[in-house]
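Task 17 of the worksheet. Students: predict the tertiary structure of the chain below and write it out as structure tokens. Keep your answer in the requested format; marks are given for formatting as well as content.
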Amino acid sequence: MAEKARLEADARASAEAQQIALASAAPTTPAADTATVSGGGATATTTTASCGHGPAAPAPAGSAGSGQSEPAQLAAEWQAAQQAVQLDDSLSKTHGTDAARQVKLLVAQVTRVHSVVWERADSVGQILGRLRNDQETLQAVCAVIAKKVISLGEMMVDKQPGMAYALAGFVLHMGEGTPLVWEVLRRQMQAACCYCVPHYVKRPPSGDNDEHMSLLGYRKRGDGKTWESKTDFYARSAGYVTLYAALLSQSWIAHFRPPDETMHRQPVHNPLGVATAWAWLARVVNQAPRPITATILLAFLKPSAHALHTAYPRQFTKLLRFLASTYSSKIHAKVDGPDKSPEEQAAIMTLDSWLSETIAALGRGSLPPPKEAVEMPEFKAPDDTRDANSRPGDDF
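Model answer:
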């Protein structure tokens, strides 16, 4: 009986989530507020409504009627981000070079320690504060910060997922005083990785494989002739998406108040936030899956699931059930077969397992935040100087 009830619940959730994915996730209420979220050259209208079960989920940016999940619209947003980044790069060559050098050093010093994040962000914030009367220089320096944050994420997030939360806290802290940081960072991320839109780049009309791989974001190896492996490209793409999801999910910063320097969690406004995270998921499920879809979905869900469920408990649970049933089947149909890739097979198996475990946890009424975010220490542990202070023979 329990198994039958579970199957019936899954079927109902799948049908409801299909409606979420293809129409609107917001429940029908007498009064709803609309807000426009823009960025990267495209504008999406979201609808929020108040109900007794927490905030309503926004209408997905890719819902029917908005057109924002149409491939042409997503391609246009990606291309607009690339064009904006070219302008950022031009400004960075001629404006704020001294400030740029300072902020690059400070961003490079960010570690998985709350006090370090706070100190470096505060120092960068002071530099940005001195540039507010020069918008071009401010934009140029924000672009330098964004590129350095993305570079750190690219190098470290795949191996140290906790760095995504450290970098997210750093950006949120700076963004309090300089909102332009968010606008620049978002387009820089979308230009660096098409899956942050998310946009699946089509093969060019020429059919040239090298051109297609370049457009996707593959990089040449050190020899300058051969492309990096699919494993390396997938891992780097997952790192970008993990960082993006952490940036959207963060809603507080660590703050240290004198005289005791105790850490306090200070809520702050995230100008993108979970509404943008929900829209990203809607855009994904409104498109046919590709071989990389399981990889980027898992990379996005792990950092954002707790925040999304906190904001939209009913709708998010339904969406997970839809992903675990209907959408997972579509991914399997894409990646299973005689030419199946080990990277894609491993990714869909891991995604299926994560969805099953997360839905079970939600059934028990608990979905804790990511442990990498929770386990970040407040202060850096003192260096171990025992070896330096020891004398010959002390160990005998």
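Marker's comment: The chain has a mean pLDDT of 82. The first strand starts at residue 32 and ends at 39.
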